[in-house]
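**Fold in tokens:**
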Amino acid sequence: MGRFKVKNIEIIAMSDKEYGKHLNDMYKKVKNRKAKSEERIVLTSISDLNKILTPARIRLIRTIKKKNPRSISVLAKLLGRDRANVYRDLKYLEGLGLISLEQHKLETTPIFNFEKIHVEISVS
């Protein structure tokens, strides 16, 4: 299997009303045991989207995808950023499921889990 998984993730910003319907639909699927793992992050505001996909984090993701750094330190050097700040961004993105961190002896390798990120913004 290749280093990158051939799949996409959606980041969706929707209204509170739409979000409530989304949660109800998810609950029904779980209750009926028809829930599937979705490659989706649902937000209720554009400001949340801006917090997740900052210019620095987008650059970080692109660098991981293009350069395949073997460690966080190498990634920090490629970005010209402090290792601690890069690590903090990586842990945040890992918590969202956008990246994973694989431990190899003394090094931690950042892996971007997707081929593309699709952003959808509801206007209703």
